[in-house]
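Protein in question kept underneath.
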Amino acid sequence: MRPSGRTLNQLRAVSIETGITKHAEGSCLIKIGDTHVLCTATIEDKAPPFLKNTGLGWVTAEYGMLPRATNSRTRREAAAGKQSGRTQEIQRLIGRALRAGVDRSALGERQIVVDCDVIQADGGTRCAAITGGWVALRLAVNRLLKAGVISSDPMLDHVAAVSCGIYAGQPVLDLDYAEDSAAGTDANFILTGAKRLIEVQMSAEGATFSRAEMIELLDLAEEGVAALVAAQKAALA
């Protein structure tokens, strides 16, 4: 029995609300269980210097967690004067994931920055940020298309992410904090809507895992991402 009472292949409740902020070109609030992330996308008219005169655009991301997103207050990283290694790793992951779903030549020499701010954390914040970040990115690109700034849609496919793991000896989908903190194996899967793999993060936290168990978790991830893509489509409808 999972602590939440969910079945092994059951996602937490998912909701995606768009148009959350006034000024951002694209925004949404994604809630996956008790993990809530605000995602905004900002269009910048020029690409980074390393892409000058290449005709290619860029998608990047920044990630942060509010001080009381967790059980106890976490000091703001700005107050510490630097980002933690975890924050840097997560925002690079989000950027890589979102770029995988974009034709950068169709985007043209401009940059879209996706900001993901965790309001409340209960496991799977990076996965929620990627899934919600894609929606914010999609909305920002829609603005470019509607304004005629770009002529073809650079969005190649949906991108979504979900965590899986082996908890109490069983492969489970979408770990909350209680499961994540006690899982023997922990994994994050990032896939496209067509089930193409973008990135897999998988490690033995307390016990090694077999090839068969890895495939079981991938199967769960494909099922979970399909449900998340359906939620993205519903939010954008």
Summary: The longest helix spans residues 211-236.
